[in-house]
Automatic annotation (TrEMBL):
Family: Belongs to the SRP9 family.
Superkingdom, natural source: Eukaryota
GO CC entries: cytosol; signal recognition particle, endoplasmic reticulum targeting
Gene3D superfamilies reported for this sequence: Signal recognition particle alu RNA binding heterodimer, srp9/1 (3.30.720.10)
Listed name of the protein: Signal recognition particle 9 kDa protein
Pfam families documented for this protein: SRP9-21 (PF05486)
Main location: cytoplasm
Keyword Ribonucleoprotein: yes
GO MF terms, alphabetically ordered: 7S RNA binding
Region (Disordered): 84-103
Keyword DNA-binding: no
Length: 103
């Protein structure tokens, strides 16, 4: 198993791997607090893709990939994933309710 150094390549190949065989594909995440490393692994028992990071900013990317996998699992491997977003965009759509005076 070789680690993929580019996040974009890892995400694209992981989605392709899942779409090719959704019944036997697995997605695992492992975090070691003492090292501060996060390892993501996608496999279908024939091919394994791994990505390792120690950057906190990659957590948002990982969250978006989780949302993509959840969408593919629920809607099927042919689902359109272009509208799938991370938590940061979903929070901006929430309207604020203030305590101000009604006009």
């Amino acid at each position: 198993m070789v680690y993929i150094s580019s996040w974009d390549e890892f995400a694209e190949r992981s989605i392709q791997l899942f779409r090719a065989d959704p019944q036997s594909s697995r997605y695992a995440m492992k975090y070691r607090h003492c090292d501060g490393k996060l390892v993501l692994k996608v496999t279908d028992n024939r091919e394994s893709l791994k990505f390792k990071t120690d950057q906190a900013q990659d957590a948002k990317k990982m969250e978006k990939l989780n949302n993509i996998f959840f969408t593919l699992m629920v809607r099927g491997p042919d689902a359109d994933i272009t509208e799938v977003t991370g938590k940061e965009q979903a929070e901006t759509q929430v309207t604020k309710k203030g305590r101000g005076r009604k006009q």
